Amino acid sequence: MIETISTEKKPIKLWLKDIDSDTLSQAKNLANLPFLFHHVAIMPDAHVGYGMPIGGVAATEGVVIPNAVGVDIGCGVCALQTSLPTLEKGQMKKVLQAVRQTIPLGFQHHKKPQSSGRMPEFANKTSGKDLPVVIREYDSGVLQLGTLGGGNHFIELQQSDDGLLWIMIHSGSRNIGFQVAKHYNQLAAKHNKAHGGIIPGKWQLDYLPQGSEDGQRYLREMDYCVQFAAANRRAMLGRVREILSELEPSVSFSTPFDVAHNYAAIENHFGREVIVHRKGATKASAGEIGLIPGSQGSVSYVVRGLGNPESFSSCSHGAGRKLGRKQAQRELDMKTEVGRLERQGILHSLRHKRDLEEAAGAYKDITEVINNQQDLIEVITTLRPLAVVKG
Protein backbone atom coordinates (compact mmCIF):
# COMPACT_ATOMS: atom_id res chain seq x y z
CA MET A 1 0.00 0.00 0.00
CA ILE A 2 1.30 3.42 -0.97
CA GLU A 3 -0.96 5.89 0.83
CA THR A 4 -4.00 6.17 3.10
CA ILE A 5 -6.36 9.15 2.84
CA SER A 6 -8.20 9.80 6.09
CA THR A 7 -10.17 12.96 5.29
CA GLU A 8 -13.49 11.19 4.56
CA LYS A 9 -15.92 9.17 6.70
CA LYS A 10 -13.98 6.00 5.93
CA PRO A 11 -10.32 5.72 4.88
CA ILE A 12 -9.22 5.34 1.25
CA LYS A 13 -6.23 3.06 0.76
CA LEU A 14 -4.28 3.57 -2.45
CA TRP A 15 -1.87 1.33 -4.32
CA LEU A 16 -0.87 4.03 -6.81
CA LYS A 17 0.92 7.36 -6.66
CA ASP A 18 -0.61 9.13 -9.65
CA ILE A 19 -4.35 9.02 -9.02
CA ASP A 20 -6.16 11.66 -11.07
CA SER A 21 -8.67 14.06 -9.57
CA ASP A 22 -11.77 12.45 -11.12
CA THR A 23 -10.85 8.97 -9.90
CA LEU A 24 -10.04 10.32 -6.44
CA SER A 25 -13.38 12.15 -6.34
CA GLN A 26 -15.19 8.89 -7.06
CA ALA A 27 -13.19 7.12 -4.36
CA LYS A 28 -14.21 9.84 -1.89
CA ASN A 29 -17.86 9.35 -2.81
CA LEU A 30 -17.52 5.67 -1.96
CA ALA A 31 -15.80 6.49 1.32
CA ASN A 32 -18.75 8.66 2.33
CA LEU A 33 -21.49 6.12 1.67
CA PRO A 34 -23.43 5.42 4.90
CA PHE A 35 -23.22 1.65 4.35
CA LEU A 36 -19.54 1.51 3.24
CA PHE A 37 -17.63 -1.00 5.38
CA HIS A 38 -14.19 -0.34 6.87
CA HIS A 39 -12.39 1.38 3.96
CA VAL A 40 -12.13 1.78 0.18
CA ALA A 41 -9.28 0.02 -1.65
CA ILE A 42 -8.02 1.51 -4.92
CA MET A 43 -5.84 -0.76 -7.04
CA PRO A 44 -2.73 0.42 -8.94
CA ASP A 45 -4.48 0.29 -12.33
CA ALA A 46 -7.39 2.49 -11.21
CA HIS A 47 -9.00 5.07 -13.45
CA VAL A 48 -12.33 6.87 -13.58
CA GLY A 49 -15.42 4.78 -14.30
CA TYR A 50 -19.18 5.20 -14.12
CA GLY A 51 -19.97 5.84 -10.47
CA MET A 52 -17.09 3.79 -9.06
CA PRO A 53 -13.48 3.80 -10.23
CA ILE A 54 -12.44 0.89 -12.42
CA GLY A 55 -9.82 -0.74 -10.26
CA GLY A 56 -11.85 -0.10 -7.11
CA VAL A 57 -12.85 -2.46 -4.30
CA ALA A 58 -15.68 -1.51 -1.93
CA ALA A 59 -17.36 -3.61 0.76
CA THR A 60 -20.87 -2.74 1.92
CA GLU A 61 -23.19 -3.88 4.69
CA GLY A 62 -26.81 -4.61 3.84
CA VAL A 63 -26.85 -3.19 0.31
CA VAL A 64 -25.60 -3.98 -3.18
CA ILE A 65 -24.63 -1.29 -5.71
CA PRO A 66 -25.10 -2.28 -9.38
CA ASN A 67 -22.76 0.46 -10.65
CA ALA A 68 -20.05 -0.83 -8.31
CA VAL A 69 -20.04 -3.98 -10.46
CA GLY A 70 -20.56 -2.27 -13.79
CA VAL A 71 -22.24 -3.09 -17.08
CA ASP A 72 -19.95 -5.91 -18.22
CA ILE A 73 -20.81 -8.26 -15.36
CA GLY A 74 -18.38 -11.16 -15.05
CA CYS A 75 -15.86 -9.68 -17.47
CA GLY A 76 -12.55 -11.44 -16.95
CA VAL A 77 -9.62 -13.34 -18.38
CA CYS A 78 -8.87 -16.98 -19.12
CA ALA A 79 -5.51 -18.43 -20.10
CA LEU A 80 -3.81 -21.76 -20.66
CA GLN A 81 -0.38 -23.08 -21.53
CA THR A 82 0.25 -25.22 -24.61
CA SER A 83 3.03 -27.72 -25.20
CA LEU A 84 4.25 -25.76 -28.24
CA PRO A 85 7.50 -23.80 -27.90
CA THR A 86 6.20 -21.16 -30.32
CA LEU A 87 4.80 -20.81 -33.82
CA GLU A 88 6.37 -19.52 -37.00
CA LYS A 89 4.99 -16.19 -38.17
CA GLY A 90 3.18 -17.87 -41.06
CA GLN A 91 1.51 -20.29 -38.67
CA MET A 92 0.45 -17.48 -36.35
CA LYS A 93 -1.10 -15.64 -39.28
CA LYS A 94 -3.11 -18.78 -40.09
CA VAL A 95 -4.29 -18.96 -36.48
CA LEU A 96 -5.37 -15.31 -36.47
CA GLN A 97 -7.15 -15.72 -39.78
CA ALA A 98 -9.03 -18.78 -38.49
CA VAL A 99 -9.96 -16.92 -35.29
CA ARG A 100 -11.40 -14.01 -37.27
CA GLN A 101 -13.35 -16.39 -39.50
CA THR A 102 -14.89 -18.49 -36.73
CA ILE A 103 -15.21 -16.25 -33.65
CA PRO A 104 -17.57 -13.25 -34.01
CA LEU A 105 -15.83 -9.99 -33.03
CA GLY A 106 -17.08 -6.58 -31.96
CA PHE A 107 -20.86 -6.28 -32.27
CA GLN A 108 -21.14 -9.50 -34.29
CA HIS A 109 -22.76 -12.66 -32.96
CA HIS A 110 -23.39 -16.16 -34.26
CA LYS A 111 -26.00 -16.54 -37.00
CA LYS A 112 -27.14 -19.86 -35.56
CA PRO A 113 -27.89 -20.58 -31.88
CA GLN A 114 -25.10 -22.30 -30.01
CA SER A 115 -25.81 -25.42 -27.97
CA SER A 116 -27.96 -24.52 -24.98
CA GLY A 117 -26.05 -27.21 -23.11
CA ARG A 118 -23.08 -24.84 -23.03
CA MET A 119 -25.13 -22.15 -21.29
CA PRO A 120 -25.06 -22.03 -17.48
CA GLU A 121 -27.71 -24.47 -16.25
CA PHE A 122 -29.32 -22.19 -13.67
CA ALA A 123 -31.36 -20.35 -16.28
CA ASN A 124 -32.95 -23.58 -17.50
CA LYS A 125 -34.14 -24.59 -14.02
CA THR A 126 -35.73 -21.42 -12.74
CA SER A 127 -38.76 -19.29 -13.48
CA GLY A 128 -38.90 -15.88 -15.08
CA LYS A 129 -39.91 -14.45 -11.71
CA ASP A 130 -36.51 -15.37 -10.24
CA LEU A 131 -34.39 -14.32 -13.25
CA PRO A 132 -36.60 -12.01 -15.32
CA VAL A 133 -33.89 -10.28 -17.36
CA VAL A 134 -31.90 -13.46 -17.97
CA ILE A 135 -35.00 -15.28 -19.19
CA ARG A 136 -35.91 -12.36 -21.44
CA GLU A 137 -32.40 -12.22 -22.94
CA TYR A 138 -31.71 -15.97 -22.96
CA ASP A 139 -32.30 -16.57 -26.68
CA SER A 140 -29.99 -13.72 -27.69
CA GLY A 141 -27.44 -15.02 -25.19
CA VAL A 142 -27.39 -18.36 -27.00
CA LEU A 143 -26.38 -16.44 -30.15
CA GLN A 144 -23.67 -14.51 -28.29
CA LEU A 145 -22.05 -17.44 -26.49
CA GLY A 146 -18.49 -17.69 -27.80
CA THR A 147 -18.23 -14.11 -29.11
CA LEU A 148 -15.51 -11.63 -28.19
CA GLY A 149 -17.16 -8.22 -28.07
CA GLY A 150 -15.32 -4.95 -28.58
CA GLY A 151 -13.36 -2.38 -26.63
CA ASN A 152 -10.46 -3.82 -24.67
CA HIS A 153 -11.47 -7.45 -25.23
CA PHE A 154 -8.89 -9.57 -26.99
CA ILE A 155 -7.63 -13.01 -27.98
CA GLU A 156 -3.84 -13.19 -27.69
CA LEU A 157 -1.06 -15.68 -28.35
CA GLN A 158 1.78 -15.26 -25.87
CA GLN A 159 5.12 -16.80 -24.94
CA SER A 160 5.98 -17.55 -21.32
CA ASP A 161 9.30 -17.24 -19.47
CA ASP A 162 10.09 -20.87 -20.25
CA GLY A 163 9.42 -20.42 -23.98
CA LEU A 164 6.02 -22.11 -24.25
CA LEU A 165 3.03 -20.78 -26.17
CA TRP A 166 0.01 -19.53 -24.18
CA ILE A 167 -3.52 -18.52 -25.16
CA MET A 168 -5.18 -15.63 -23.29
CA ILE A 169 -8.72 -14.33 -23.79
CA HIS A 170 -10.34 -11.26 -22.23
CA SER A 171 -14.12 -10.97 -22.58
CA GLY A 172 -17.33 -10.66 -20.60
CA SER A 173 -21.07 -11.29 -20.50
CA ARG A 174 -21.93 -9.40 -23.69
CA ASN A 175 -25.43 -7.91 -23.98
CA ILE A 176 -27.03 -10.14 -21.34
CA GLY A 177 -24.79 -8.60 -18.65
CA PHE A 178 -25.44 -5.10 -19.95
CA GLN A 179 -29.20 -5.61 -19.80
CA VAL A 180 -29.06 -6.97 -16.24
CA ALA A 181 -26.88 -4.05 -15.12
CA LYS A 182 -29.13 -1.45 -16.76
CA HIS A 183 -32.34 -2.94 -15.35
CA TYR A 184 -31.16 -3.08 -11.75
CA ASN A 185 -29.39 0.26 -11.82
CA GLN A 186 -32.71 1.81 -12.84
CA LEU A 187 -34.45 0.03 -9.96
CA ALA A 188 -31.71 1.19 -7.59
CA ALA A 189 -32.18 4.80 -8.70
CA LYS A 190 -35.94 4.53 -8.05
CA HIS A 191 -35.30 3.01 -4.62
CA ASN A 192 -32.82 5.70 -3.66
CA LYS A 193 -35.21 8.46 -4.75
CA ALA A 194 -38.18 6.86 -2.98
CA HIS A 195 -36.22 6.68 0.29
CA GLY A 196 -35.14 10.29 0.45
CA GLY A 197 -32.21 10.24 -1.94
CA ILE A 198 -29.70 9.46 0.79
CA ILE A 199 -27.10 8.99 -1.96
CA PRO A 200 -26.70 12.03 -4.25
CA GLY A 201 -27.80 11.05 -7.75
CA LYS A 202 -24.73 12.65 -9.28
CA TRP A 203 -22.57 10.06 -7.50
CA GLN A 204 -24.14 7.32 -9.69
CA LEU A 205 -23.99 4.89 -6.75
CA ASP A 206 -27.67 4.03 -6.28
CA TYR A 207 -28.24 0.93 -4.18
CA LEU A 208 -30.63 -1.95 -3.49
CA PRO A 209 -31.15 -3.40 0.01
CA GLN A 210 -29.54 -6.83 0.12
CA GLY A 211 -32.61 -8.44 1.66
CA SER A 212 -35.16 -6.92 -0.71
CA GLU A 213 -36.71 -8.85 -3.60
CA ASP A 214 -34.92 -6.61 -6.11
CA GLY A 215 -31.62 -6.93 -4.25
CA GLN A 216 -31.87 -10.71 -4.16
CA ARG A 217 -32.88 -10.88 -7.83
CA TYR A 218 -29.94 -8.70 -8.79
CA LEU A 219 -27.51 -10.95 -6.96
CA ARG A 220 -29.00 -14.03 -8.67
CA GLU A 221 -28.98 -12.47 -12.13
CA MET A 222 -25.50 -11.04 -11.60
CA ASP A 223 -24.28 -14.51 -10.61
CA TYR A 224 -25.79 -15.97 -13.78
CA CYS A 225 -23.99 -13.32 -15.86
CA VAL A 226 -20.68 -14.20 -14.16
CA GLN A 227 -21.29 -17.84 -15.13
CA PHE A 228 -22.27 -16.83 -18.67
CA ALA A 229 -19.12 -14.74 -19.10
CA ALA A 230 -16.97 -17.71 -18.02
CA ALA A 231 -18.85 -19.98 -20.44
CA ASN A 232 -18.35 -17.40 -23.19
CA ARG A 233 -14.58 -17.37 -22.66
CA ARG A 234 -14.54 -21.17 -22.40
CA ALA A 235 -16.31 -21.48 -25.78
CA MET A 236 -13.79 -19.19 -27.49
CA LEU A 237 -10.87 -20.92 -25.81
CA GLY A 238 -12.18 -24.25 -27.09
CA ARG A 239 -12.28 -22.89 -30.63
CA VAL A 240 -8.69 -21.59 -30.44
CA ARG A 241 -7.60 -24.97 -29.11
CA GLU A 242 -9.25 -26.64 -32.11
CA ILE A 243 -7.45 -24.26 -34.49
CA LEU A 244 -4.08 -25.03 -32.91
CA SER A 245 -4.79 -28.76 -32.91
CA GLU A 246 -5.59 -28.66 -36.61
CA LEU A 247 -2.30 -26.87 -37.22
CA GLU A 248 -0.19 -28.99 -34.82
CA PRO A 249 -1.98 -32.29 -34.03
CA SER A 250 0.52 -33.24 -31.32
CA VAL A 251 -0.20 -30.16 -29.19
CA SER A 252 -1.46 -30.60 -25.62
CA PHE A 253 -2.99 -28.06 -23.28
CA SER A 254 -2.89 -27.33 -19.55
CA THR A 255 -5.99 -26.88 -17.44
CA PRO A 256 -7.10 -23.27 -18.06
CA PHE A 257 -7.20 -20.52 -15.45
CA ASP A 258 -10.29 -18.30 -15.49
CA VAL A 259 -10.63 -15.13 -13.41
CA ALA A 260 -13.53 -12.65 -13.32
CA HIS A 261 -12.91 -9.05 -12.32
CA ASN A 262 -16.38 -7.40 -12.39
CA TYR A 263 -18.72 -8.81 -9.74
CA ALA A 264 -19.98 -8.62 -6.16
CA ALA A 265 -19.61 -11.47 -3.66
CA ILE A 266 -20.60 -12.16 -0.06
CA GLU A 267 -17.33 -12.61 1.86
CA ASN A 268 -15.98 -12.35 5.38
CA HIS A 269 -13.53 -9.51 6.07
CA PHE A 270 -12.38 -8.01 9.37
CA GLY A 271 -14.75 -10.35 11.20
CA ARG A 272 -17.91 -9.30 9.33
CA GLU A 273 -19.93 -10.75 6.48
CA VAL A 274 -20.08 -8.07 3.78
CA ILE A 275 -20.71 -7.68 0.05
CA VAL A 276 -17.40 -7.03 -1.70
CA HIS A 277 -17.76 -5.19 -4.99
CA ARG A 278 -14.82 -5.64 -7.36
CA LYS A 279 -15.05 -3.40 -10.41
CA GLY A 280 -11.96 -4.02 -12.49
CA ALA A 281 -10.24 -5.84 -9.63
CA THR A 282 -9.09 -9.45 -9.28
CA LYS A 283 -9.57 -11.61 -6.22
CA ALA A 284 -6.16 -12.42 -4.72
CA SER A 285 -6.73 -14.65 -1.69
CA ALA A 286 -3.65 -16.40 -0.31
CA GLY A 287 -2.47 -18.91 -2.90
CA GLU A 288 -5.17 -18.02 -5.44
CA ILE A 289 -4.10 -17.76 -9.09
CA GLY A 290 -4.79 -14.46 -10.85
CA LEU A 291 -4.35 -13.17 -14.39
CA ILE A 292 -3.24 -9.58 -15.02
CA PRO A 293 -3.15 -8.76 -18.74
CA GLY A 294 -1.12 -5.91 -20.12
CA SER A 295 -2.16 -3.59 -22.91
CA GLN A 296 -1.77 -4.45 -26.58
CA GLY A 297 1.99 -4.72 -26.99
CA SER A 298 3.01 -5.19 -23.35
CA VAL A 299 3.54 -8.27 -21.20
CA SER A 300 0.87 -9.99 -19.12
CA TYR A 301 1.25 -11.87 -15.83
CA VAL A 302 0.12 -15.02 -14.10
CA VAL A 303 0.22 -14.22 -10.38
CA ARG A 304 -0.47 -15.82 -7.01
CA GLY A 305 -2.45 -13.89 -4.40
CA LEU A 306 -1.03 -13.08 -0.97
CA GLY A 307 -4.39 -12.57 0.73
CA ASN A 308 -3.68 -9.04 1.95
CA PRO A 309 -6.68 -7.99 4.10
CA GLU A 310 -6.06 -4.29 3.40
CA SER A 311 -7.10 -4.81 -0.26
CA PHE A 312 -9.96 -7.15 0.71
CA SER A 313 -7.73 -9.86 -0.81
CA SER A 314 -7.72 -8.16 -4.22
CA CYS A 315 -5.24 -6.95 -6.83
CA SER A 316 -5.33 -5.12 -10.16
CA HIS A 317 -7.11 -6.49 -13.23
CA GLY A 318 -4.76 -5.09 -15.85
CA ALA A 319 -2.59 -2.11 -16.71
CA GLY A 320 -5.38 0.48 -16.45
CA ARG A 321 -6.10 3.35 -18.81
CA LYS A 322 -4.20 6.61 -18.65
CA LEU A 323 -6.02 8.14 -21.64
CA GLY A 324 -9.75 8.08 -22.31
CA ARG A 325 -10.87 6.51 -25.58
CA LYS A 326 -11.50 9.77 -27.45
CA GLN A 327 -8.41 11.30 -25.87
CA ALA A 328 -6.30 8.40 -27.17
CA GLN A 329 -7.63 8.95 -30.69
CA ARG A 330 -6.74 12.64 -30.48
CA GLU A 331 -3.33 12.39 -28.85
CA LEU A 332 -1.71 9.14 -29.97
CA ASP A 333 0.25 8.85 -33.21
CA MET A 334 -0.58 5.84 -35.38
CA LYS A 335 2.95 5.52 -36.77
CA THR A 336 4.43 5.51 -33.27
CA GLU A 337 1.98 2.92 -31.95
CA VAL A 338 2.36 0.62 -34.96
CA GLY A 339 6.14 0.94 -34.70
CA ARG A 340 6.01 -0.04 -31.03
CA LEU A 341 4.26 -3.31 -31.97
CA GLU A 342 6.25 -4.13 -35.07
CA ARG A 343 9.61 -3.61 -33.37
CA GLN A 344 8.58 -6.40 -31.01
CA GLY A 345 7.45 -8.58 -33.91
CA ILE A 346 3.83 -8.64 -32.67
CA LEU A 347 1.12 -9.47 -35.18
CA HIS A 348 -1.67 -6.95 -34.63
CA SER A 349 -4.74 -5.29 -36.15
CA LEU A 350 -3.92 -1.62 -35.51
CA ARG A 351 -5.21 -0.07 -38.72
CA HIS A 352 -7.63 2.78 -38.14
CA LYS A 353 -7.75 5.87 -35.95
CA ARG A 354 -10.43 4.29 -33.77
CA ASP A 355 -8.02 1.44 -33.02
CA LEU A 356 -5.84 3.90 -31.09
CA GLU A 357 -8.36 3.60 -28.24
CA GLU A 358 -6.70 0.29 -27.36
CA ALA A 359 -3.10 1.09 -28.31
CA ALA A 360 -0.40 0.54 -25.70
CA GLY A 361 0.09 4.30 -25.38
CA ALA A 362 -3.43 4.63 -23.96
CA TYR A 363 -2.50 2.49 -20.94
CA LYS A 364 -0.32 2.74 -17.86
CA ASP A 365 3.05 1.01 -17.60
CA ILE A 366 2.16 -2.55 -16.56
CA THR A 367 5.58 -3.00 -14.93
CA GLU A 368 4.91 -0.07 -12.60
CA VAL A 369 1.41 -1.41 -11.88
CA ILE A 370 2.88 -4.77 -10.85
CA ASN A 371 5.61 -3.12 -8.77
CA ASN A 372 3.00 -1.12 -6.86
CA GLN A 373 1.26 -4.26 -5.59
CA GLN A 374 4.11 -6.40 -4.34
CA ASP A 375 2.21 -6.76 -1.06
CA LEU A 376 -0.83 -8.14 -2.90
CA ILE A 377 0.58 -10.70 -5.34
CA GLU A 378 3.68 -12.55 -6.43
CA VAL A 379 4.45 -13.09 -10.11
CA ILE A 380 4.54 -16.72 -11.27
CA THR A 381 4.94 -16.26 -15.02
CA THR A 382 5.48 -13.37 -17.41
CA LEU A 383 3.81 -13.68 -20.82
CA ARG A 384 5.16 -11.81 -23.84
CA PRO A 385 2.65 -11.03 -26.64
CA LEU A 386 3.17 -12.61 -30.05
CA ALA A 387 -0.12 -11.96 -31.85
CA VAL A 388 -3.40 -10.32 -30.91
CA VAL A 389 -6.97 -10.12 -32.22
CA LYS A 390 -9.04 -7.22 -30.90
CA GLY A 391 -12.78 -6.85 -30.93
Number of helical segments?
Answer: 8
Query: Given the helix and strand composition, which structural class is it?
Result: alpha+beta
Count of individual beta strands: 17
CATH architecture: Alpha-Beta Complex
Order of helices and strands: EEHEEEEHHEEHEHEEEEEEEHHHE
Domain count:
1
**What's the pLDDT, averaged over the residues?**
94
What is the fourth-level CATH superfamily? tRNA-splicing ligase RtcB
Strand residue content = 25-35%
Largest sheet, order of strands side by side? 10-6-8-7-17-15-14
- Determine Rg (CA atoms, Å): 20 Å
Low-pLDDT ranges: none
Characterise the protein shown here.
The protein has 391 residues and is α+β, with helices and mostly antiparallel strands. It has a single domain (3-322, 363-390), classed as tRNA-splicing ligase RtcB. 30% of the residues lie in helices and 25% in strands. The chain has 8 helices and 17 strands. The chain has helices spanning 21-31, 89-102, 132-144, 174-194, 213-247, 325-331, 334-343, 366-371; strands at 3-5, 12-14, 36-47, 54-60, 63-64, 76-81, 154-160, 165-171, 208-209, 257-260, 262-269, 272-279, 281-283, 289-292, 300-305, 314-316, 377-390. Strands 10-6-8-7-17-15-14 form a 7-stranded antiparallel sheet. Helix 1 (21-31) links the parallel strand 2 (12-14) and strand 3. Helix 2 (89-102) crosses helix 5 (213-247) and helix 4 (174-194) packs antiparallel against helix 5 (213-247).
